[in-house]
Amino acid sequence: MKLEGNTILITGATSGIGRGLAEAFHKLGNKVIIAGRRQNLIDEITAANPGMEGLQLDVQDAAAVSKFTENVAKKYPQLNVLINNAGIAKFESWSEDKVDLEIVRSIIHTNITSVIQLTAELLPLLRKQKNATMITTTSGLAFVPLTAAPTYSASKAFLHSWLQSVRSQLNGAVEVLELAPPYVATELGGQAQAEDPRAMPLDEYVAEVISILKSNDTADGEILVERVKSFKQAVTNEKYGPTFELVNSMFKQE
Asked: Helix or strand or coil: residue 9?
């Protein structure tokens, strides 16, 4: 992926990793369009970053996603980078008699269905560009699940597999990259995660991601910072069991 002169759309960009990447790419001289549910945050971020633009989007509304992609294609015909970053994470209890299926449905719709829809509807535009890239945020939990968040972990594992197939089918017509973060200090898991000293500081994570992209160190189409490599390598290094136990002992549901 070239790092300058792009027109980049980032979903889930009003906080956390999405916002961090948006501001980093903006500083590198790209045209950045952020998308998120909260208009007040869109306004705040674009005001703080002159030249950045924002569009409101609720990815759980399929009709709204279609209208959004139509608008994007008309307004930004030079769009050549899509970053699917919108996602939600929630704990679930499967040890009780009744499972909250609304939580399950919301995670699947946000983390899987909306990503597929957005990608499918914007791919024709991306394929027209000379240098096009699609990046999708997964997680280290795609490789080693957190048992307190089974559907979230599984949704990221789904995306990991899906991206491999899409990458193969597109065969270079659009570069397909997977961004698999470790435990990062964001509000994805609430304020406790944002303040957890065990989490990787957001600015450090974003800086390492940009460094990886600059060096083109994306083996197998994956953007992996050092902190997450043990997750990916757990099976090949025959350390899956110990890694699984470590992850789940550190992040037990209170």
From this structure: strand
Q: Assign 169 to helix, strand or coil.
A: helix
Is-contact 101 49, C-beta < 8 A?
no
Query: What is the Cα–Cα distance from 170 to 151, expressed in whole angstroms?
Result: 28
Distance CA 34, CA 56 (A): 8
Q: Which residues are catalytic?
A: 152
Question: Is pLDDT at 253 greater than 70 in this prediction?
Answer: no
pLDDT digit string, tens, across residues 117-155: 999 999 999 999 999 999 999 999 999 999 999 999 999
Per-residue tokens: 237 = 């290094």
Residue 8, classed as helix, strand or coil, is strand
Q: Which residue has the tokens 């299926």?
A: 101
Mean of the pLDDT values across residues 92-121? 95
Q: Which residues are paired to 180 by β-bridges?
A: none
Structure tokens at 29: 């001289």
Set out the domains of the chain in order of their start, with CATH numbers: 7-250 (3.40.50.720)
Average pLDDT, integer, range 108-123: 98
Bridge partners, 178 (sequence order): 136, 222
